Amino acid sequence: MNPYQQKKRWKYLLLVFAVIIASGSLLYTNYLVKNIAKSERTRAQVWAMSMKQVLGSDDNDFLNYVFAVRDSSIVPAIVTDEKGGIILTRGLDTTKTFIKLAAEGNKKLTYDPVYFADELAYMKKQHAPIKLKILGNAWFTYYKDSALLTELKYFPYIQLSIITVFLVMAYTAFNSSRKSEQDQVWVGLAKETAHQLGTPISSLMAWIELLKEKFNAEDDQLFGEMENDVKRLEIVADRFSKIGSTPKLEDHNLYEVVNDFINYFKFRVSKNIHFSVKGQSNYITGLNVPLFDWVLENLLKNAVNAIEGKGEINVEIQGNKIKDQVFIDITDTGKGIPRSKFETVFQPGYTTRKRGWGLGLSLTKRIIENYHNGQIFVKDSEIAKGTTFRIILKTIKNDKQTTT
Known about the structure:
Shape: elongated
CATH superfamily of the largest domain: Histidine kinase-like ATPase, C-terminal domain
Helix content: 40-55%
CATH architecture of the largest domain: 2-Layer Sandwich
Distance between the termini: 45 Å
Radius of gyration: 40 Å
Largest sheet: 7 strands, mixed
CATH class of the largest domain: Alpha Beta
Strand content: 15-25%
Order of helices and strands: HHEEEEHEEHHEHEEHEEHEE
Structural class: alpha+beta
Low-confidence stretches: 59-63, 65-70
């Protein structure tokens, strides 16, 4: 199992663990809410029954006891008659219930009609009424959940929200810290590699010159190819030395840069693979050529590895004048990539080769997006038919367009 798959498995395990915690919290809170709701209905029934006892008894001591029981209830409630008129209330906003003095000096209890109508409608939605027969009349006791029960209902969601925010912040901080550490390791390794390559490359250049003089072979093609490869090594070392620092971008003809690299690359792979470059040839864009060549090299190597036997690799350059962009599509006739892996292929450590490190496309994405302010993605792929990678870059200028 490669490192990326291990990391993915751990993410799934953490997700399952989080779901178990959340589900357990919700189930337990729901259990508490049901028990409290049952208790509050019992208390509402006690309060309702107390009124019946109050109105039907002449025993003052018993009345005091009943009032005490009734007043111990904190469940907001409204008692109505058969016609829906409000008779009594309990646990509601006292500012909405006031005493009005009549002209003859008698005190009269008056209600805010809008407030009590809204409260009564809300209570009817929450719970079925408790029906009582008092003095031959039918009274209905409506009640709603107490403030404590209401708070408890929303508590798990608030709790989960806080936990989620904390986990997201913790994951972001952890991921950022880990990425920073990885970047430092990569930068140090890359610069050390460039430093170590410098001495043998200089020696190789000197040995080639000595061999040319010794055998009087200034125009020998073999020595010329050897020089090209040594120069290529210099470019590779230069690439590594640029990692971790902001590279300088210069204006280049994109078509010429792509075409030059493919002319170098195609002589170093199987002759069974045919290369072609086509499209508009006068787009100018900001490039760091050594790093951009590295991008092309990684994409073309992947394309070559995906082709079994004979095949084709086609590069097409097209522009978007409206957005000042240029598209580079690299298409192969290889084995293809499953749609579910379109994003995964750019992850560090992901590879389908037994001896691969899974770093090529990850570095490619970083070079395009971080250094060239562009985009790279899998535009299209079909199993057993091929894959197309698309690079999008900003254009500096484009003169009269010509098609090759």
